[in-house]
Amino acid sequence: MQRRDFMLSLAVGTASLMAGCSAQRASAPPASSPAASPSAPVASAAASPSAPPSPSPSLSPLHLQDGPPSLPAPTAPDSVILGLPEGVGNVLALTVDDGADPAVVDAYADFAKDSGVRLTFFINSMYPSWTDSRDKLLPLVESGQVQMANHTHSHAALTSLSPAGIVEELSQCESFLNSTYGVTGAPFVRPPYGYRDESTDAACAQIGYSTSVMWYGSLGDSGLLPPEVLLGEADKWLEAQRIVLGHANAPTVTQLYGQIIDILRERSLLTATLDDVYFGPGHTRSI
Question: Which of 36, 39, 101, 280 is least buried, going by the fewest C-beta atoms within 10 A?
Answer without folding.
Answer: 39
